[in-house]
Amino acid sequence: MKPVLSPFQRAAECSNKKLKLGESLSWKETSVEPAPVCKVFGRIDEENTPDSFCKVLCTSELEVISIPSRVLPWFYGGCPESINLKMSTACTWIVDLKQQDGNVLMDKGWPEFVKAHDLKVGYLLTFKKLDTKSLQVLIFGYNCCEKVIWCSGYHPSLGQQYQSQLY
Questions:
Q1: What is the pLDDT of residues 144-166, one digit of tens each?
Q2: All domains of the chain, ordered by start, with CATH?
Q3: For residues 73 and 43, is the Cβ–Cβ distance under 8 A?
Q4: Can you tell me the distance from the alpha carbon of 82 to that of 156, in angstroms, rounded to the nearest whole number?
Q5: 10 Å Cβ neighbour count for 137?
Q6: 0.70 exceeded by pTM
């Protein structure tokens, strides 16, 4: 069993890994086991699972990002084909989910989300469950402040470039 690490310890672990030119970390190399009991602000929901989680982005998570196994009970009756990522600006992105080696990954649509929001290694993302198909996403940059990107109604070039993922 891997040790339980805080997001900031995990980021340090990612940044300390020596990489050769052209090499990247796989998500398996940076995954850590969840804490035995995961409390969120002192509450545990009716299914004894957290209602939110956070990720400090590592190199590999700019292409695909995993959802912690501890929150899989959110998806009653199995994993949906896609999930809605709702931003604080009222934008919603559709990202496909896939199961691989017992993990659920945000796959198709995630790289476009990363590019549109100019996400970088070390940024902190928080994901909060809204329902079984939607997550509220907050992005925090290096300055620890929320990063806000306006959707197509406020940012025309973003809407044209990412029309298929925004609605």
A1: 899 887 765 444 455 555 555 55
A2: 7-161 (2.40.330.10)
A3: no
A4: 25
A5: 20
A6: no
